[in-house]
Amino acid sequence: MKTILNVIWLVLSGFWLFLGYVLAGLILCITIIGIPFGIAAFRIGIYALWPFGYTTVERRDVGAPSCVGNVLWLVLAGWWLALGHITTGIALCLTIIGIPLGIANFKLIPVSLWPLGREIVRTDQPFARTSW
User: What pLDDT score was predicted for residue 127?
Assistant: First the structure.
């Protein structure tokens, strides 16, 4: 089922969201300071390309630098990536078939706003890696 959802997702919104994350990553990688943000954008772009079967977990071993980085991310790229998720989520919710995809888009908004300090794990692993 997740394969079917991922293919429909890819056609309707995943590819465009992926391109947005890649563009953000390339722009952020222009400076040395922006490279960690660009890597985060590429990581979340892959997650936005194939979201079904994966989830994000919060890492507990990150500290204040992650919080400061998330604030910088929000200002530099997070707000317009979140707008992309909101726009495609609303558009997908206009049809009955698109409602699960729209809901998945809305679930990606917190990740697009605060990506640092999160890890993407598979949902079918019984003991997904979490930091205590």
Answer: 56
Q: Give dist(CA 90, CA 103) in Å, integer.
A: 9
Residue with tokens 């079967």: 53
Write the single-letter amino acid at 24.
Answer: A
Q: How far apart are the first and last CA of the chain?
A: 32
Residues 6+ apart with CB under 8 A from 110: none
Residue showing tokens 């590429």: 42
Q: pLDDT band at residue 26, thresholds of 50, 70 and 90?
A: very high
Report which of 86, 18, 13 is spatially closest to residue 46, judged by C-alpha positions: 18
Residue 3 vs residues 10, 84, 110, 118: alpha-carbon distances, Å: 10, 23, 24, 24
